[in-house]
Amino acid sequence: MQIISADGIGIALIQVPYLYQNRLLAIATGCRTYTSGIGKSRAAIVISSNTIDALLITQLLDNDAAILGIIIGNTRFFAARIYLD
Fold first, then answer.
1. Band of the pLDDT at 53, cuts 50, 70, 90?
2. Domain limits of the chain?
3. Three-class SS of residue 84?
4. What's the confidence (pLDDT) of residue 22?
5. Would you tell me which CATH number, out of the four given (3.30.70.2210, 3.60.10.10, 3.40.50.300, 3.40.50.2020), belongs to the domain 2-82?
6. Cα separations (Å) of 51 from 55, 63, 65, 69?
7. Residue among 72, 12, 71 nearest 44 (CA)
8. Measured between alpha carbons, how far apart are the two ends of the chain, in Å?
9. b/e per residue 39-76 (b: at least 16 CB within 10 A)
10. What does the pLDDT look like over 9-44, one tens digit per residue?
11. Which residue would you say has higher pLDDT here, 77 or 16?
């Protein structure tokens, strides 16, 4: 989280986030975190900028994937974090 705030990173794709009792830990309070929300998730996307709009795509979720529709100004794209063995 120090690198994200120091370098001004807006979107971070995290593999195997630190979980405790199915809750994501070690993420700054000002950040939005997106995971599957189903049991122990092995993929997460963290957004630290308030200028980035994001929508979790729930149709494609499982414990190993997090997919977002992202809008930054006039730019729209998808971000996917998928854990692969």
1. very high
2. 2-82
3. coil
4. 64
5. 3.60.10.10
6. 13, 28, 24, 14
7. 12
8. 25
9. eebbbbbbbbeeebebebbeeebeeebbbbebeeeeee
10. 889 888 877 777 766 676 767 788 888 766 677 888
11. 77
